[in-house]
Amino acid sequence: MSKRNSLTPLENKIPDQKSGRFLTGPVRRNFSHGAGFTLIELLTVISITVLLVAILLPTLQRVKKQAKAVICQSNLKQWGTIFTMYTNNNDGLCPRQKFHGLATPEPWMYIIHDYSTDNEGIYCCPMATKIASPVAQDSTNIMGFRPTSGPGATTGGTFLAWGKLTFKIEGNQTPAYYGGYGMNNWLSMPQEGGMVIIGCGRGAESLKESFWSTSNVKGAGNIPVFLDSWWWCSWVKDIDRPPEYDCQKTDFPCGCRDSIRRFCFNRHDGFVNAVFLDGSVRKVGLKELWRLKWYQNFNTDSVPPVWPEWMRRFKDY
Asked: Would you list the domain boundaries of the chain?
């Protein structure tokens, strides 16, 4: 390349001694061997960039979490609509759960299957898309004695979906179920009188008045149907204790002890999402779980006298 071509024309004002005016004319500057940025200038630019990233990153992460929470509520809204479709087509009655033996209840996923969607995108909360056991486990063989960790564990977690689980019903194996949400099983009354309810440890007849048999009730906006959960169902009781740490489990997840813990974990910064019997969807504070009307005679004033350390910073209700 010639020296002439390496010169860049610039406009410059040149003083004229005779006329006393400034003359405008091209001036050429040689950049072929021109100076670039100095080391100090580069370090300054890098420092400013790093500072801006440090300032913006927490905001971006918060926005991302908020977006996932919105999607989670949308998923629950769809499950609530499916539940409403079922009750509308069954004279307003809630699902009836049939037991095929003590360890084989009909899960809500099976009962409302004909009303549900094939869109697997609504099965899991976006904060918990990884499945505990990608290989399906037969619930008939492990119901009641299911490990909560290690090989074969099907319980989920704060950021882990439960499943995959299959059930043997009337001699047929169900599809493998999984998800990030659980049902308030007080909305799924057993069909057969006298059957022992696994989650309650008592006969169905003795608890008949506790179940919500129909969706046409007062206060439906405080009756939870589906919530963020590390298990597919729960029979919450007003004597349940809060978990001693985030997502505390027992080695007997199908038992009746402290079932509220299946919903009480920190998936959404002190909240879980829920859809209620009136179809409304909102976030629920972890301490607020004791204020919801899980069953008809649930005592909403039975708040634990002392909260564990990890929950004390959350909002009181």
From this structure: 53-311
Number of H helices, E strands in the chain: 3, 16
Beta strand spans in the chain (E): 7-15, 22-30, 96-97, 137-138, 162-166, 168-169, 172-173, 177-179, 181-184, 189-190, 196-197, 202-203, 224-228, 233-234, 271-276, 281-285
Query: Could you tell me the end-to-end alpha-carbon distance of the chain, in angstroms, rounded to an integer?
Result: 78
C-alpha to C-alpha distances, 109 to 95, 114, 279, nearest whole angstrom: 11, 9, 18
Left, alpha or beta for 91 (phi > 0: left; psi -120 to 50: alpha)? left
The verdict on whether omega for the bond into residue 65 sits within 30 degrees of 0, i.e. cis, is no
Cα distance between residue 312 and residue 317, in whole Å? 12
Which residues, 6 or more positions from 31, have their beta carbon under 8 angstroms from its beta carbon? 6, 8
DSSP bridge pairs for 276: 224
> Regarding beta strands 189-190 and 271-276, do their DSSP bridges make them parallel or antiparallel, or are they unpaired?
unpaired
317 residues of the chain, pLDDT tens digit each: 444 444 445 455 555 555 656 555 555 555 455 556 788 888 888 888 888 888 877 777 788 888 999 999 999 999 999 999 999 999 999 988 776 655 556 889 999 988 886 778 899 999 999 999 999 988 765 544 455 555 568 899 999 999 999 988 888 888 999 999 999 989 987 765 545 455 554 444 556 778 898 999 999 999 999 999 999 988 898 999 999 999 998 755 455 678 999 999 999 999 999 999 999 999 999 999 999 999 999 999 988 889 999 999 999 99
- Three-state secondary structure call for residue 286: coil
The pTM of this model reads: 0.79
Q: Which among 192, 157, 193 is positioned nearest to 265, based on CA atoms? A: 157
Rg of the chain over all Cα atoms, to the nearest angstrom: 31
- 59-73 b/e (C-beta count within 10 Å ≥ 16 → b): eeeeeeeeebbebbb
